[in-house]
């Protein structure tokens, strides 16, 4: 009798364990994996949520942390470098295993990165680089080649406009690596087409509202001067989408009256290309979670890493958007 009762209660307990286990599969699988008994604690200092791209990057890092059973300390700096510096100092005080940093601007990181190095906490840079005199202050950088992206956009536009016309430029956040490099790459690409000129260039801070506001001002100024704008080059899709709105509100047709080219390749950009309002976007993948945590695990284990891993990017335009839209992941 006693044995029967024991058998019954054991079976119920086993069933319960199975149910709980299946319900929490990723976390439990991670606990049973290499991190078992010693889960990594990683601080992630994110810039903010200025664009759809940025939100996709945050999601990629967060979901990869869950998959691997890593405890992630996430901070959103609201676009401010001082908030990122504060967050890094907090991570150091908390003695995290590693820090993932997406730096808002290129300069001003030396002191805090020296503090992380002195505390023997590896720093992995994702998406944007920093300008430091000693590159041992970070372990590795995982990012796209922003100069190449700008060049690809310019070469596509030069063909589209037959090498002639006036372009307005919507720059990203002042001092950020993508704003600096996408400008540089675009100018390099235009060097082969001297008939193409950037007539106005201002920052829209990588936001849709910023892109719209700056484009409204550009259109107004051009109208006042009786000048024509043939194309807009936006350093990201969100600003291009804002510019498209401004062009429509000015009674013009984006995509034909004014050609619109941008960078990122987010879902909304594909929708705009299918609708005919955006002409072209150069991909910049935000899906950096898997590579970032591979780097974290290697850095913590003391395995050497390359100083930089470049993410491959492609270009999409209205001729390829419809086929590609269904398989886009962000
Ligand atoms: O650093 C990558 C850039 O930052 C993306 O192009 C942009 O959308 C983001 O905010």
Which H/E pattern describes the elements? Answer: HHEHEHEHEEHEHEHEHEHEHEEH
Bound molecules: alpha-L-arabinofuranose
Write out the strand line-up for the largest beta sheet, numbering strands in chain order: 2-1-3-4-5-11
Strand content: 15-25%
The helicity comes to: 40-55%
Number of strands: 12
* Average pLDDT metric: 91
Account of the protein in words:
This protein is 47% helix and 18% strand. The protein has 12 helices and 12 strands. The chain has helices spanning 2-23, 25-31, 52-68, 81-93, 110-118, 146-160, 177-190, 208-225, 237-249, 267-275, 289-301, 321-324, and strands at residues 41-46, 71-76, 98-101, 123-126, 140-144, 165-171, 196-203, 231-234, 259-264, 280-283, 308-311, 315-317. The strands form 2 sheets. A 6-stranded parallel beta sheet has the order 2-1-3-4-5-11, with helices on both faces. The protein has a 6-stranded mixed beta sheet with strand order 7-6-8-9-10-12, sandwiched between helices. The longest helix is centred in the first third of the chain and has 22 residues, at 2-23. The chain is elongated. Residues 1-36 have low confidence and may be disordered. It binds alpha-L-arabinofuranose. Alpha-L-arabinofuranose binds at residues 50-51, 53-54, 127-128, 178, 206, 236, 238, 263-264, 284.
Lay out the secondary structure:
Layout: H1 2-23, H2 25-31, E1 41-46, H3 52-68, E2 71-76, H4 81-93, E3 98-101, H5 110-118, E4 123-126, E5 140-144, H6 146-160, E6 165-171, H7 177-190, E7 196-203, H8 208-225, E8 231-234, H9 237-249, E9 259-264, H10 267-275, E10 280-283, H11 289-301, E11 308-311, E12 315-317, H12 321-324
The structure holds alpha-L-arabinofuranose.
Alpha-L-arabinofuranose is lined by residues 50-51, 53-54, 127-128, 178, 206, 236, 238, 263-264, 284.
């Amino acid at each position: 009798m006693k044995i029967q009762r024991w058998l019954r209660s054991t079976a119920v307990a086993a069933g319960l364990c199975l149910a709980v286990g299946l319900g929490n599969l990723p976390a439990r699988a991670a606990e049973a994996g290499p991190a078992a008994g010693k889960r990594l604690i990683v601080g992630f200092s994110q810039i903010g949520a200025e664009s759809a791209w940025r939100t996709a990057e945050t999601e990629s890092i967060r979901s990869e942390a869950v998959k691997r059973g890593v405890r992630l300390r996430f901070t959103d700096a609201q676009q401010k470098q001082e908030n990122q510096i504060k967050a890094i100092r907090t991570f150091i005080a908390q003695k995290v295993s590693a820090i993932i940093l997406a730096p808002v601007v290129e300069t001003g990181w030396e002191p805090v990165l020296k503090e992380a190095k002195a505390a023997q906490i590896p720093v992995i840079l994702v998406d944007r680089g920093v300008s430091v005199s000693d590159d041992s202050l970070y372990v590795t950088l995982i990012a796209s080649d922003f100069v190449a992206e700008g060049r690809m956009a310019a070469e596509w536009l030069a063909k589209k406009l037959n090498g002639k016309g006036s372009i307005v430029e919507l720059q990203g956040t002042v001092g950020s690596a993508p704003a600096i490099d996408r400008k540089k790459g675009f100018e390099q690409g235009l060097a082969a087409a001297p008939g193409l000129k950037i007539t106005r260039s201002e920052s829209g801070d990588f936001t849709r509202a910023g892109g719209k506001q700056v484009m409204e001002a550009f259109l107004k100024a051009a109208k006042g001067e009786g000048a024509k704008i043939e194309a807009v080059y936006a350093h990201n899709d969100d600003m291009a989408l804002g510019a498209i709105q401004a062009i429509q509100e000015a009674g013009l047709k984006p995509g034909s009256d004014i050609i619109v080219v941008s960078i990122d390749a987010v879902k909304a950009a594909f929708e705009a290309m299918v609708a005919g309002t955006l002409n072209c976007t150069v991909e910049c993948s935000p899906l950096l979670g898997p590579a970032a945590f591979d780097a974290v695990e290697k850095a913590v284990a003391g395995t050497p890493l390359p100083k930089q891993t470049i993410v491959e990017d492609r270009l999409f335009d209205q001729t390829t958007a419809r086929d590609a839209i269904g398989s886009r992941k962000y």
